[in-house]
Amino acid sequence: MNGMKGRDYIIILLVEEICTSHKASRRHIQNKQKKMVLHKLVLLLQWALSEDTKWMKFQRDFENFKTACIPWEMKIKEIESHFGSSVASYFIFLRWMYGMNMILFGLTFGLVMVPEALMGKPYGSLPRKTVPRAEEATAMNFATLWDFSGFAQYSVLFYGYYNNQRTIGWLKFRMPLSYFLVGVGTIGYSFMIVIRTMARNANDDGGGDDTSFNFSWKMFTSWDYLIGNPETADNKFASITTSFKEAIVEEQESRKEENIHLTRFLRVLANFLALCTLAGSGYLIFFVVRRSQKFALEGLENYGWWERNEVNMVMSLLGMFCPTLFDVISSLENYHPRIALRWQLGRIFALFLGNLYTFIIALMDEINLKLEEEKIVKYNMTIWEASLYNGTIPENSTAPPIEVDPADVPRGPCWETMVGQEFVRLTVSDTMTTYVTILIGDFLRAVFVRFFNYCWCWDLEYGFPSYSEFDISGNVLGLIFNQGMIWMGSFYAPCLPAINVFRLHTSMYLQCWAVMCCNVPQERVFKASRSNNFYMAMLLFILFLSTLPAVYTIVSIPPSFDCGPFSGKTRMFEVISETLEHDFPSWFGKVFGYASNPGLILPFILLMVYV
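Predicted structure:
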């Protein structure tokens, strides 16, 4: 069998046996010999077919096993078969972001939170790790914990809890260095994985031309005759039906004739209305932010829950209602559904971006207020320490002063923890708004239409309110900007990647359920583009914009003097020079200094961009 496959060898044996049988029959051999030869042929044929069937079955089972190992693959395929590739592309994007956030969670949890919890000083050992005496009575209240204050504020969830010791534990773990490198590595990994995915999508062009004889190919080659499961057959039938709808829309759009002057007027009007909506949203955010600064100066404890969370709630409500308004406006433009989706994404992108940067500007104002307050606190702490020393040490005595409970020690404002709390609150409020929208806007609406349609004065399914369609643009932009908040806030709140993993995990199940149970396919089902790079391009852009505020705070703003791993330094990045000075030879520090010269870095960056 030199280089010969087993199946070919079996065929040769069968041919030889047939020839032998034929020759034997021509010589008039006994019937008993003929029966033996035929029996051997049957056995060989059965063995060959059984071995081939087993191998094919093994291959099919192995392919099914690989498909089952892909998270949520069957759910996404079922959604695609009923709602089209455009809706399925959102869930594929959601699954991709879930995988990326699992890596970010592993970095922050394994290299920052767990080492501090296991090897760092315990709760109550330092003022930064202790709830102040005035807040102890309410530190465990649900309202306080829901606001991420009290014991939640003085824990590994936020920046201010971490100590500035160079090494902690018996492993001599370098916590400040690890904290800084994880923050930088999170951004670096995000850039790498987004750009790599865009490059892979650009190379994956789908292969072949699927526009020639499109309907004939779909009609005669779409069905898979190996399907043996009734549920799979139903999904395949729905998928073929949806693909025909997509193809019909593409054909209608290619043959559509329109009044060009009326179309231009309606598109200009739609853009004007969209700009007015964006301007009104920006002014409302600006107005609410100014009110929140006034509340902060007068003391938030004097106001209720709405005043304390007004900025977060207004931003969440704008993110919920403005996309619906943009969707109504886009109906005037009469674009192809795929082009209309991109315009919708662009407008919601501008809305979210304006809201996000308005929120960041408000945070910068609060940081400046905290820095001014810090100067006053430093002066008061100096007076407190002097009075404590003079009051506890007798004259002409060398005894040390008495120890003070960390809960009674005055402390300065930790602006880093304040920034982390704001991003955590905004993320949680946005998550709750999304879930409430699904339950009320989709589920209760579908229940009302389903059960009251029989006794209503008009057809609720085809009239108002009808079943809702899946909002692709709003959900995609919600994912992207939520990820932008994670990138900006995770340096000051290491718990943010964990919160985002939980949000994405629950969103996958909740939205899959809502789509299949509460939504209906769009009236104009359209085929998604072959490349998912449009989503990735927006994600890359928001990653760049999210990096700018984080880099600015790290490079330009001095860290708080009595909280966080970088306290006592003038800038956070000084932890790198400190490590080079103490843990590496002097020549390595000189080489690193030359390599980090802007005169070398800028040409290298330009070369990378050019390549």
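Summary: The two ends are 52 Å apart (CA to CA).
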